[in-house]
Amino acid sequence: ESYTEQSGVRLNHQLRERNADSWKHADLVFCASDFTRQSLLQVGAPEEKCRVVSYGIDVNNTPLEPAENFEALFVGAGSQRKGLHHLLFAWQRARLPKDSRLTLVCRTIDSGILELVQKTPNVKLIRGLRHTDLLNQFRKSALFVMPSLVEGFGQVYLEALAQGCPVLGTTNTGLPEIGGDAVHLVQPGNIDQLTAMLEQLSAALPGNLSIREAARNSAAKFPWSRFRQSLISELVAAN
Fold first, then answer.
1. Are 139 and 158 a contacting pair, CB within 8 Å?
2. Residue 8 has pLDDT above 60, yes or no
């Protein structure tokens, strides 16, 4: 599914089946989140075979500054799986400060969602950014929001937190494992919850430096050294 979103090329039936059944040929399956692990268990994967090893991130240690306005940011494929249509519906409904803005960074975007973007006020669409520019976008945004319906982990959440940007996502991601005061969760597909959370955070985040420090502290718990050591430990234990 992610390949299709990024490339626009749909895999044939045989390749989709091989991809879906690949775990059956493994002695050990590493999952980036407990949500992924539970998904595998539901289709019959043995519990003892599936281990959770979350990804890592390098944390930005430059001085943090509070966001002045409610600038929300979405980064990802502009698709239904990422919950972008739900975010746009919630943004339309939410009672937000007049200077609020939602920036979407999407290299690809579904045609139906693009029409919804054009009908939603105070939304800016950027068709891709260089890495350094994207990091700056995280640093100046008050909130990163990606209400995915399904997400194996969501590395972009860690990327945002590492730059001191609080995040809002769903329980069907790796966010429950990340945790912390700067991580906010809603149920996937629940537009009412998403609307209420946007309203709440639009009042709480601007001018709040401590929440940006909490965001970076959450990311700091997931260094790449932890990821590598966890992999090694699980492989040694399996042998």
1. no
2. no
